[in-house]
Amino acid sequence: MTAHAGKWTVEQLLTPETLAALLGLAKQTIYNRHSTGGDLPRATKLGKLLRFRPSDVEAWLEQKLESNHHLSPTAPLPDQPPSAPRRRGRPTKAEQVAARRTAH
């Protein structure tokens, strides 16, 4: 329910299946993200049922669009932290190919 000018309205709640279809995700992804505290709109539990308000989904999507808006395709990506040194062990496929090319 939401309050608009002193009146209460009831929104049709979205099921995880409906939300998954809207977002182009698997239904299990919605359940997994909810159980691990992952990135999802605010959810409501009705007994054992998980439901999402359309207004919360819209607000969440707007926030996602705004946070991604500042990254333009031509802008450089933020600096990545230096990667950890590679652990010893079997060489990667790229390293194997490079070694074969230098050996011939």
Question: Which features characterize this protein?
Answer:
104 residues; alpha+beta; 4 helices; elongated
Return the string of H and E elements. Answer: EEHHEEHH
Share of residues in helices: 40-55%
> Helices and strands: which structural class?
alpha+beta
| Helix run count | 4
Side-by-side strand order of the widest sheet: 1-2
Shape: elongated
Alpha-carbon Rg, integer: 23 Å
What is the average of the pLDDT values? 82
**Termini gap:** 72 Å
Oligomer: single chain
Number of strands: 4
Sheet with the most strands? Answer: 2 strands, antiparallel
Instruction: Please indicate the percent range of residues in DSSP E strands (runs of 2 or more).
Output: 5-15%
Stretches where pLDDT is under 50 for at least 5 consecutive residues are none
How would you portray this structure in words?
- It is a single chain.
- The termini are far apart.
- This protein has helices at residues 16-23, 27-36, 54-69, 93-103, and strands at residues 2-4, 7-9, 43-46, 49-52.
- The protein has a domain at 15-69.
- The chain is 43% helix and 13% strand.
- The chain is elongated, with a radius of gyration of 23 Å.
- A two-stranded antiparallel ribbon has the order 1-2. A two-stranded antiparallel ribbon has the order 3-4.
- Helix 1 packs across helix 2.
